[in-house]
Amino acid sequence: MRRDTITGHAPRVWKVVRVRSGYDLTAFGGKEEWSVLKQVWIRDGSRTEREIQDAIWKDMEDTWKATSGECAEKVNEIRKRFPIIDKLMMNESYKRYFLTINTDAVGGYLTPKPAPFSGTAIRMNDSSICSFPQSTNARTRGFEQKRQYSVVFKELCTTVGRLKTLGDTMDVLEDSVIGLLLLFCAGWVHRDLSTGNIMAYETGNKLQVKICDLEYAQRFGKGEGSNEPKTGTPYFTAVDVMRGEWDDALFDTHKLSPNMDMPKFFYTYYHDLESLWWIINFIVIVRIPNPLAEHLIPFIFHNSMEVKDTRRTFPVAAQRRLSPILNSRVSFFAQDLGDLGKGIYDLANMLLGNNTLKSELNYVDMYKKFQDFFQGLSQHGTDWCRLTLGSHEK
Fold first, then answer.
1. pTM over 0.85
2. I need a labelling partner for 126 at 20 to 30 A (CA). Which of 12, 54, 77, 195 fits?
3. What are phi and psi of 27, to 5 degrees?
4. Where in this chain does the record put each Fungal-type protein kinase domain (predicted)?
């Protein structure tokens, strides 16, 4: 059994095999095939992971069939920029970018007991993530009725945080852009991307990305102005999401129309992509050790939703900050990640300034920038692909 988070009543994950019965532990069908059992506590009345997945599939297919309106415009733009999506939609091949659910069940209720609560739901999905001290002022919240949910996934995977080489890791992260683009097609945001839920499934001699942990996923724009606790793994959470508001210190808010107020904050596709950007930074800064980076790591990767200034400004100053601290074998990532960070921030700035954050068509460029980033890594040769990644555990 592996506990995949450090908080109480948190998800638990087991490696399991199906057997004939509780009395006959012989492998079902005579062949031992490993699967994954995950148990979580879900709010009473909330959707299960299967129900969320089914809703995403339906929204994705409905969008792809659209013949008019913004959905049709979005589909046409995606077809032009990402031809692979059209092929994936033809025979439901898109489902391979996500885990296959074999079976699931909703169980009994959690015994009522108030819990201390800091106002922030912190997820730690990968035990390979190092931990830094944090302080919170606990308060008591009302009890939310919860039920146990068990789900068995077909694929036994390796988290991207545990892959051994930089080449394999970047290949899987590159494929994750397609997975996120599929969610974009459906009109959904993930809201909890981390090194623990972008996974690699070995099929033959290839690693297939699997994006999992969809329990926090929701339709785009649904949470506008809501006061729900923040979700996400702090290391990889977008700065806006950590703050719970648009970071107007970075955005050119003076470009807003004179009579226009700052839009209410809500989770956007941009925030999922910023999480992916933080994951790439984490891999090259922390998992390829360099003594020069040790002083910076606690200020940008820390187990708290408190936003330090170093982290807040890091995306727009990434090249300058990364150049002196990256291992020489991956020094080229400084400019590439710097350009990517600035590029997506400029696009987000434009959407905020033009009050077009809800116009989905405007986000396509961001996905293209990530695809270009990964494809551009090939110009730096192949030696870096063989680099062995450290565990970075303390």
1. yes
2. 54
3. -55, 135
4. 3-284
